[in-house]
Amino acid sequence: PGTTPTVPVTASGSGRFGGVLEQIGSEVAALTDRGRPADYIPLLAGADPGRFGMAVAEPDGTVYGVNDWQEPFSTQSITKVFALALVLASEGEEIWRRVGREPSGNPFNSLVQLEYENGVPRNPFINAGALVVTDRLQTLTGNAAGRVRDLLREESGNPAVDFVAEVADSEAAHGDRNAALAHFMASYGNIANPVPELLAAYFRQCSIAASCQDLASAAGFLARRGVRADGSMLLTPSQAKRVNAVMLTCGTYDAAGEFAYRVGLPGKSGVGGGIVAVVPGVCTLCVWSPGLDRRGNSVAGVWALDRFTTLTGLSVF
Ligand code: DON
Questions:
Q1: Contacting residues for 75 by C-beta, under 8 A, at least 6 apart
Q2: Which residue intervals make up region (Disordered) (predicted)?
Q3: Could you report how far apart the first and last alpha carbons of the chain are, in Å?
Q4: Mean pLDDT in residue range 228-234
Q5: Is 153 among the domain residues?
Q6: Cα–Cα distance measured from residue 172 to residue 111, given in angstroms and rounded to the nearest whole number
Q7: Which of 40, 86, 109, 219 is spaced 20 to 30 Å from 235 by Cα?
Q8: Is residue 13 part of a domain?
Q9: How many domains is the chain partitioned into structurally?
Q10: Strand, helix or coil at 287?
């Protein structure tokens, strides 16, 4: 990510929100403070905060965007939504015995709550909870990361969506915090697979590169009440509602309150600078810009989603 050439601004306007996207895509140039790329994974640290892309996918599959919307970037924690969807699709509500669904109010990689709460993480979108979900998906499929990648490929229609080995290796080389979380939960019996195997699957899952176009399309089932791109059902309408609800309350970590206040949509961020957001029944959005705020959310990404809901009047409220 970050090394392929910039795709020129694509004339949008082909869909309902094309004009709004063009406006946001030109206004973003005036945004001066864009935060800093994540530096705890050395390979992400070099990303250019000047990059910005935004895409909208409508429920019929129409997808369009502005600026760097077709540029692949490191999806990171955005994959946690897709892993959770696969586990829910496979065995329904079982997973909630092992992970909660309350906001944590703590940073995404925090250890502190886990001991008070007996090794059961607050929600599936902080790292501890995502490790539990990937652990379950690994048990169910034997190939958790591969299943997440395949779901992204199938729903985006882009077979080029793939792992980036250098990103997974870079994270593994600096993975002490995630290893500590996994071992700690294993000591409570809340991890079924060998921790090294789980960490390898989790880092591979986080390393998947995809573009705003890919991710807006791939999340379409969340705007279609669980229905996949091919018309089959991934989640029940109730499960899709629940994934959206957990995204709203927990998808941007200890900034979820601020994100709901400003944007008013379910959203899931990743430290690569991407954010996926859902307007149920209307569209899915993905924004990308690598500069992050201190809570790990893309500065220009949150700004752009804020502009989108302000300009369109759309939100879940
Ligand atoms: O577990 C980690 O540290 C990363 N691979 C994923 C974290 C992430 O994207 C959290 N996000 N904002």
A1: 152, 206, 208, 209, 210, 215, 270, 272, 274
A2: 1-14
A3: 35
A4: 97
A5: yes
A6: 18
A7: 109
A8: no
A9: 1
A10: strand
Active site residue 241: no
Atom of ligand 1 nearest to the CA of 272: 9
Per-residue pLDDT tens over the stretch 83-111:
999 999 999 999 999 999 999 888 888 88
Rounded Cα–Cα distance for residues 289 and 317 (Å): 26
**The predicted structure's pLDDT at residue 107:** 82
Ligand 1 binding pocket (C-beta < 6 A) is: 76-77, 108-109, 127, 171, 178, 206, 269-271, 296
Pairing of strands 209-210, 73-74: antiparallel
Measured by CA distance, the residue closest to atom 8 of ligand 1 is 77
State pLDDT tens for residues 267-298. Answer: 999 999 999 999 999 999 999 999 999 999 99
Give the residue numbers of the binding site. 77, 127, 171, 178, 202, 253, 271
Q: Mean pLDDT over all residues of the chain?
A: 94
Catalytic residue among 64, 202, 278, 298: 202
Which tokens hold the place of 76? Answer: 């990171």
**Any catalytic annotation for residue 77?**
yes
Task: Show Cβ contacts of residue 30 under 8 Å, excluding neighbours closer than 6 positions.
Answer: none
Cα 211 to chain center, whole Å? 12
Domain that holds residue 71: 18-312
In a domain, residue 283? The reply is: yes
Q: What is the ipTM of this complex?
A: 0.91
For a ligand 1 pocket test, name from 76, 250, 293 the mutation site with the most ligand atoms within 8 angstroms of its C-beta.
76
Q: Tell me whether residue 128 is in a domain.
A: yes
Which of these is catalytic: 63, 99, 164, 271?
Answer: 271
Structure tokens given for 114: 């886990």
CATH code assigned at 23? 3.40.710.10
Beta-strand runs (E) in 91-195: none
